[in-house]
């Protein structure tokens, strides 16, 4: 066999030499995560003595797995590779052991394999239940090992749970935390340069691998600056955030619970500076909303109008298109997809850095009091996209009500007894799913006795929920899930 050698960073050597069965690594960008996972994958395949077993590298998607791992694995393991097949994602080493490249987006491709070791890369984005229901059982035959590695996200609950397990369980699990500073090949000056230009959330999350990048005080009042429009060339953009139109509920009493429909007019200068000229917001019906958008287009002549894609966008577009045709006012309208991210994350990463570094200023002739209140409170309940359908029944102290009829005057049943509603709002039309008898938006948090607050789309079969007993003395009880 030809000489086989892999050069490692100090932290990589430390983790590989550790004897823990399950290893969890929370690491910043450019720390050397991918090279580590590939080196460990190869070393585990060399170490394995059973030719009927495999070693598996798993990324969130098969395309990502091939992009991250395939070429590098072949290059690093070249002296000991016997054969490879990119179509089935398998590399066979000279000792007869296979290295399998897989994605969690195709769960069936992960089944039926006796595993000696599994590496789950970018675990914060790996499909929920991949570990518990597929990979963990596959390791049982050989008492195999596993490594989880990723960069934290505020809503990466499963990665956080696994990481905490490695902190508290000293028998089989162990966790490490590495920042970009732990890669001795990265110039520290480059990291400091990034810190000066990135938002706090982006730098802390991507470079320092911090879990705590969202929360209160994301947008600080000292960053708000009202100034006259800068000199120089610019282009005008209009951004539209559609909300629950006034007639969504069919009940005028509910208007105060609707989120604002907002129209932002922003000048973007060639220097990269943003000047917010105006934000028009309110709770209007769909026709008035379309009229206000048309007036903004006519008055400011933007080169592009962006509107968040979805049911609310579809509701307004026929009215807006008809108004533009009748009035001879036209603009390029771009439908903006939120890419599956929740609103708090989208706003944090889009605006925090610009405001923190003084690259967004506001028109001093406008009244920004309401904007400032919303900014300081962000993220608040109205920043959340999680909702139940309007006809969801809620147990209150006065009996059962549909959630659309619940107000801040009500006391609702919680796992800790009846509690007063602090805020009620309507988000209009949203995509919902049904799991274990619960219908809500996928990101809605559901309390479990096993793991605390968990997204609805991440609830597992072995989680224990708290359910209401609709009897004379209303109370809550624990209930295990079961899949029918």
Assembly state: single chain
Beta strand count: 24
Helical fraction: 25-40%
How far from one another are the termini?
53 Å
Basic shape: globular
Write down the CATH class of the largest domain: Alpha Beta
Spatially, the strands of the biggest sheet line up as 3-4-5-2-6-7-1-8
Q: What number of domains?
A: 3
- How would a textbook summarize the main sheet? 8 strands, mixed
Q: What proportion strand?
A: 25-35%
Q: Could you characterize the architecture of this molecule?
A:
With 484 residues, this protein is α/β, with parallel strands linked by helices. It folds into 3 domains: 10-188, Rossmann fold (3-Layer(aba) Sandwich); 221-383, Nucleotidyltransferase, domain 5; 393-480, no CATH class. The chain is 27% helix and 26% strand. It is built from 11 helices and 24 strands. It has helices spanning 10-17, 33-47, 62-76, 130-138, 157-168, 188-197, 200-206, 286-300, 311-327, 343-356, 369-377, and strands at residues 22-27, 54-59, 81-85, 90-93, 98-103, 115-120, 145-150, 173-178, 234-241, 261-269, 274-282, 304-308, 333-336, 360-362, 393-396, 399-402, 411-414, 417-420, 433-435, 438-440, 445-448, 452-455, 464-469, 475-480. It has an 8-stranded mixed sheet with strand order 3-4-5-2-6-7-1-8, sandwiched between helices. A 6-stranded mixed sheet has the order 13-12-9-10-11-14. A hairpin with a 2-residue loop joins strand 19 (433-435) and strand 20 (438-440). It is globular. It starts with 9 loop residues before the first helix and ends with a strand. Mean pLDDT is 84; it is low at 248-257.
